[in-house]
Amino acid sequence: MTTDRNNAVPRRTLLTGALAGTGLAALGATGAEAATGFVKGADISWVPQMEANGYYWCDRNGNRADILAILKTYGITAVRLRAFVNPSSSPQDGHCSTEETARFARRCKDAGMQVMIDPHFGDTWNSVGVQNPPAAWADMTYSQMQQAMYDYVYHLMMVLKYHRVSPAWVQLGNETNPGICVPTGSVRYNPAQLAGLLNAAHDMVKEVFPAAQTIVHLAQPQHGDVITNWLDTYRNHGGRWDISGFSSYASGAATIDAIANNIEGFKNRYGKPVMQVEFGGRWDRAERTKADLSYFIQKMRSIGALGLFYWAPEGYSPFTDYQMCAWDPATRRPTVAMDGFLV
C-alpha cells in the first residue's frame, strides 16, 4: 500500500485510495476475539526497535529464541502495543507508527496472541505527567481536532484490518488523568471536549471492530478520589467506554491490597469490568518483583478483574535505562521476576 499511514486520512475516503480493491471482507477480518479467562499480558512495543538495533532474547536456559515464544512459556497470551501519530525515528521515544504497529500486531496474532492497541494520541509518549496533542493538531479548534480524531482512529483501525488483525481491546489514550490533547481535552477545564474527543475514538473503534472492547486508562488507582472524580466527570459528560484500565507499579502486599480494593470499588461504582494494563518492578530486585507480580495477579483474580499486563519486560540496557524491565542485560535471559506469571 502507498498511503501515508502516519497522517490522518478522510474518514470515508480510505477505501477509495490505497485499500481499494483489496476485498477486505474476503480477508477474513472480523470482529475482535473475545478474551477468555484471566488474561496475562505484556506491553512489548519496543520489540521492533530493539530488533532493528541488533537486540535479541534468550530463554531461561540461555537459548536464543523469539520473544513471543519465550513469553508464551510464562502463560502470557496477550500483548499491548502503543501507537504514535507522527513519530520520530528515535529508538526509545519514536517509532510505533500506524504501519509499524500494525505489522507487529500481525506477527503477534500469528503467534497466537491477543492484541491490545494503545494509541497515545500524540507523536511520542503521553502519560499521567504530560498529554500533548500531535504537532499537526496543536493549533486546531475543538471541532477540527474531533474530526482529526475520527480520521486518525478510523485510519488506524482500517490499517489493522488490512493486516488481518482484530484487536481484542483498544485503549483510548494513555494514562489520561489530565485529559487528552491538553488543553483542548483537559478534564479540569474542558471536560465536555474531553468526552467528545474520546467518544470520537470510541465510535471509530466500534465502527470498524464492533466486538473490540474500549478501555479508558488512568494511572495511580491508589488515589481513589482522583480516579472517581475523573470517571464521574467523564460519565456525566456522556463518555463511552467498556473497560476501566489502570496503571500501578505497587510493591508490597498491603499496598497491593489497598489498590485492589479501590479497583474493585471502581468496578462496582461504574458497572464496568476492570483490568490492570500496566505493572512493573525493579529488574535488579527480581525476587521482590516476582512476589509482587504473583500477588497482584491473585488479587486481580479475586476481584474478578479481566487481566494484568507487565510493561516492557523485554527491555534491557543499553537499549534503555528504564529500571523496571524483566530481562537480564548480561545474559539476555528473563529474570526470575517473570516467574510471577506462573500462578
Automatic annotation (TrEMBL):
<dbReference type="Pfam" id="PF07745">
    <property type="entry name" value="Glyco_hydro_53"/>
</dbReference>
<dbReference type="InterPro" id="IPR006311">
    <property type="entry name" value="TAT_signal"/>
</dbReference>
<dbReference type="InterPro" id="IPR011683">
    <property type="entry name" value="Glyco_hydro_53"/>
</dbReference>
<dbReference type="GO" id="GO:0015926">
    <property type="term" value="F:glucosidase activity"/>
</dbReference>
<feature type="signal peptide">
    <location>
        <begin position="1"/>
        <end position="34"/>
    </location>
</feature>
<keyword id="KW-0378">Hydrolase</keyword>
<comment type="similarity">
    <text>Belongs to the glycosyl hydrolase 53 family.</text>
</comment>
<protein>
    <recommendedName>
        <fullName>Arabinogalactan endo-beta-1,4-galactanase</fullName>
        <ecNumber>3.2.1.89</ecNumber>
    </recommendedName>
</protein>
<dbReference type="GO" id="GO:0031218">
    <property type="term" value="F:arabinogalactan endo-1,4-beta-galactosidase activity"/>
</dbReference>
<keyword id="KW-0732">Signal</keyword>
<keyword id="KW-0326">Glycosidase</keyword>
<dbReference type="GO" id="GO:0045490">
    <property type="term" value="P:pectin catabolic process"/>
</dbReference>
<dbReference type="InterPro" id="IPR017853">
    <property type="entry name" value="GH"/>
</dbReference>
